[in-house]
Amino acid sequence: MLVRAFGRSIAVCLLVAAMLTACGRGDRAEGPPPPPAPAPAPVRPSAPPALPTLQEAIGIDTPPAGGPTIHVTVDAHGGITVDGQPVVGDAALRERIHRAVAAAPGAAAVIAADGRARYSQVIAVMDVLKSENVSRLALQEEPAASAPARP
């Protein structure tokens, strides 16, 4: 009976020791706490990646000063003129730009859009110019007039 009680005590002691070791308490050394970790170095912002310019994204060249130029305007109400002549509809726009390019091969284009003009109309004009092989293009924003823009 004494052996059984002594055996149980040893088993309980071994069990307690194993639990303390598993919890991390058995290997802790006495003494001062370790020094604090050094502060991380400050993060310095790097330069943002270079984004493509409008010229690179669309594949156009800006027109040089002088030389033949096709002037296209887009007003706040959606009215479009090519070299001062009003055009109505996509077919008329395409025909007028086709004639302007035929009259001045290699001409550059300048699109002057009212600040309230729809982007979709300006993009449509750019698409027509590109389809007619006009690769030199400049965009000019005209100040918004007092008339309200079309919805």
Q: Which descriptors apply to this entry?
A:
17% strand, alpha/beta, disordered C terminus, 151 residues, Nucleotidyltransferase, domain 5, 5-stranded mixed β-sheet, 5 strands
Walk me through the structure:
The chain is of the alpha/beta class and 151 residues long. The protein has a domain at 60-142: Nucleotidyltransferase, domain 5 (2-Layer Sandwich). The protein is 35% helix and 17% strand. It contains four helices and five strands; from the N terminus they run ααβββαβαβ. The chain has helices at 2-22, 54-58, 90-103, 119-131, and strands spanning 69-74, 80-82, 85-87, 108-114, 137-142. A five-stranded mixed β-sheet has the order 3-2-1-4-5, with helices on one face. A hairpin with a 5-residue loop joins strand 1 and strand 2 (80-82). The longest helix is centred in the first third of the chain and has 21 residues, at 2-22. It is rod-shaped, with a radius of gyration of 39 Å.
Write the layout of secondary structure elements.
Blueprint: H1 2-22, H2 54-58, E1 69-74, E2 80-82, E3 85-87, H3 90-103, E4 108-114, H4 119-131, E5 137-142
Parallel strand pairs: 1-4, 4-5
Antiparallel strand pairs: 1-2, 2-3
